[in-house]
Structures are given as structure tokens and as C-alpha cells.
Amino acid sequence: MTDEGILRQAKELKEYVIDCRRKIHQYAEVSGTEKKTSTFIQSEMESMGLPWEMVSKTGLIATLETGRPGPHIALRADIDALPVHEEPDNLIRPRACVSDNPETSHACGHDAHAAMLLGTMKALVKNQKDITGTYYFCFEEGEENGGGIHQMISALEKRRVDAVWAIHVYAELQSGKICVSPGPRMAGAAGIDIKITGKGGHSSRPDLAINPVFCAADIVSNAASVWVNQISAGETVTLGISSIQGGSVGNVIPDTARILGSMRFFNWEEGRKAVELLKSVARHTAEMHRCQVEFLPRFDTLVSPVINDKRLADIAEKNLQTLLPAGWVSQCPPWYASESFSLYGQKWPALMAHLGINNPEYGSGAPHHNGFFDVDEDVLETGVAATLKFIAALEAEQRLLEY
Q1: Which of 302, 384, 311 is nearest to 351 (CA)?
Q2: What is the DSSP string of 227-263?
Q3: What pTM does this model have?
Q4: Fewer CB atoms inside 10 A, N or C side of the chain?
Q5: Pairwise CA distance, residues 67 & 57, whole Å
Q6: Among residues 318, 267, 259, which one has the least CA distance to residue 286?
Q7: Distance CA 318, CA 250 (A)
Q8: Residue 393 and residue 315 in contact, taking contact as beta carbons nearer than 8 Å
Q9: What whole-number distance in Å separates Cα of residue 45 and Cα of residue 25?
């Protein structure tokens, strides 16, 4: 696959990829319910003659074996949508396609990810006589809630995997630009979910009650002080308290209150330290208020940061610069969102590229998980070309090692 051939094939597949994206966008099914989406992907796999298997309720893997020695590469896309109301227009114009259910939408770009992987799959099947190695096309269900990642990892662990590649569209990056920088690229996360139990009563006699709302407020206030004084300088751990829930009327002190939120970090050890610090603050503050605290299951669920393998990042950057126009291979700051792709990187060398979709003239650029979010479809061609070039680069490296 020469650069000229890759660019030609990506251009030829552009309309196919856009059509796939629009179909998947219309289906827009939330995590764990992606039945129409999965069925559509299955039909595309079968039309290309590829064997496939279900690895979870809706997640699946197709395999292309060339029969010739070469790299074993897992190519991953996520397929779920979000329970986010979709506006009929993007930032400036009517959308090219809309969800069949306006209360469920692909407000994160997973429709684009799946479509680019289908286009890549079609190109590799067409060229299978001229390529080497084995390719796993991984369509992961439930990325937003982690519902499909562990089954996908388990399925891949039964195979040889030399590298894992994925693309995530990114609304903060100019359309067409692509970032493949090494190191931390997306944040790790820990949920915050603390239940505080006190003693309810009439608000006219707070002295006869044990008010969990005051306790919750003090936990949040004390945590802010701890973040300033005990999180390591030079490390980032965000403290995103989003809700204090406690009662619903003005003259009743409730029995319980609850604190919800999340933390984001790029250093796993600092993230774990932050979780333990917040637990310590909650316990000691509750003792001061004569309350009890319970850390609900979501609190102890940590997602590690997405960390791009340096060797793969260097290969991608060097080779994409020969394929794409000058300046298209770009840098961008790490993204504070979190991604289940981090778990692939804990098992194998992995690389997630960020593909820009911010185009004011098209109306794309609204934040992810937002009703106005939209994908500049012109960049999908670049995503397919970049994936094919990365594959070609790993093939060439493998040949050199064998030589």
C-alpha cells in the first residue's frame, strides 16, 4: 500500500464510510442496547466474507487472516450512543442526518469511529493479497459505561496481538488534523459516590437531629483544602463535585445525604492517592458530625489514563507526515475525558489517534456529550487513510525485523 494507493482508496471509500456513519447515527442506541447497530455491522462483515464472533451482547470481532507472516493488529471502534437530546441543527445549520430517537444521540462520535473502521475493513479485504499479517476488527459495545470492554479484552487475550489502534474524533482540534502524540492522552477517572447517614428530624429543632446535609457540605469544603495541600505539585487531579443530594422540603432534616462527582487524572498513582485522601476526609468529617459514611460501588471504580505507546506513536507520526499535507499531523493538549481504550494499553502496545472535527463553516465543534455536537464528515476519509498508513508502517517494520 503506497501513499498514493492509500489516498486513492480512502477517497474511493469516502461515500461508503459517510453512508455507514449516517446509518449508525440514525440507530443511536445507548450502551448495551446496540442491537440494530450490531446487526448492521454483522451484515457488512458477512458481505465482505469475513468470519466474525460475538464477544458480548452486541460487541463483536471480525478477523482477516492473510496467511502470510506479519503483524497481528487489533483495530478498535466503539458503537454506543448517549442518552442526550439531539438538536436538529448543529452550531449553524441542519444536520446531515438525525437520530431516529431524538432523546438518544451519537453525541460523542462513536458513529464516526465505527464507520471509519468499516471503511478500513473494506480496504484491507480488497487488498488482502497484497498485505501480510492478521487483523482483528473490534466493535466494542458500551464504551460509555464500560459494559463491553472486559469481554473484548478477554476475547483478544486468546489471540496474538502486537498492537492496538483506535481513532477518536475530537471537537477541540481543527478538522482534518490528527494527533498521535506519545504518553498520556486522555484522563483516568474515579467516580465519587458517598452516602452520609445521620438522623432526621424537624428543621425547627436541628439540635435533636444529626444533619447529614451539613456533614456533606463540610466534606466537600474540607476536600478542597486537601486538594490544595496534599495533591502533588505538578500533577493534575480534578475534583468535580456535581451534586449534593439531601431531602426535598424546607422543614424536614433528612436521614441521609449523598455526594456525587468524579475525579480526573493523568497519573495512576496520584489518582489512587486522591481517592484515599477523599475517603479519609469523608470519614473524619463524618466522625466530627456524628454521622456514618458509606462509599458506594461507583466510588472505587477507577479507569486508568489512555497512554499512547511511544514506539507506536513515533512510527505513526513519522509515516503520517509523508502521507498527509504539511501541518496536518498536529499536537494537542491531553483531553480530560476518559476512555475504556486505556485498558487495551495495559495489555498490549496501544495507540489512540485524535482526529479533529472542529469546522466553524460546517457547524461542527460543539463539545462532546452536547446536543449540538456534530461530525465534519469530510475528515472520515483522513481517518481511513491514517489507519491504512499505520498498518502499512507496521508491516514494513515487521519485514525489516524478519530480514
Answers
A1: 311
A2: HHHHSPTT--EEEEEEEEE--SSTTEE-SEEEEEEEE
A3: 0.92
A4: C
A5: 30
A6: 259
A7: 63
A8: yes
A9: 19
Which cell goes with 4? 498514493
Q: Residue 134 and residue 69: Cα distance in Å, rounded?
A: 8
pLDDT tens-digit series, residues 308-329: 999 999 999 999 999 999 999 9
CA-only gyration radius of the chain, Å:
24
Question: How far is the CA of 157 from the CAs of 139, 180, 255, 302, in angstroms?
Answer: 16, 25, 47, 22
Other C-beta atoms closer than 10 Å to the C-beta of 39 total 11
d(CA 178, CA 55): 30
Q: Output the furthest CA–CA distance in the chain (Å, rounded).
A: 84
Instruction: Report phi then psi at 199, rounded to 5.
Output: -145, 120
Is residue 51 within 8 Å of residue 122, measured between CB atoms?
Answer: no
Measure CA of the first residue to CA of the last residue in the chain; give whole Å. Answer: 19
Structure-block grid coordinates of residue 78: 466503539
Average pLDDT over residues 59-86: 97
What is the per-residue pLDDT for 401? 66
- When pLDDT is averaged across residues 90-101 and rounded to a whole number, the result is 97
Q: For residue 21, what is its C-alpha cell? A: 456513519
Query: Collapsing DSSP states into helix, strand and coil, what is residue 165?
Result: strand
- Pairing of β 237-245 and β 256-265: antiparallel
- Tell me what pLDDT residue 302 has: 80
CA atoms within 13 Å, Cβ hemisphere of 26: 9
pLDDT per residue as tens digits for the range 143-177: 999 999 999 999 999 999 999 999 999 999 999 99
Classified as helix, coil or strand, 359 is strand
Residue with cell 444529626: 210
Residue 297, all three cell numbers: 460501588
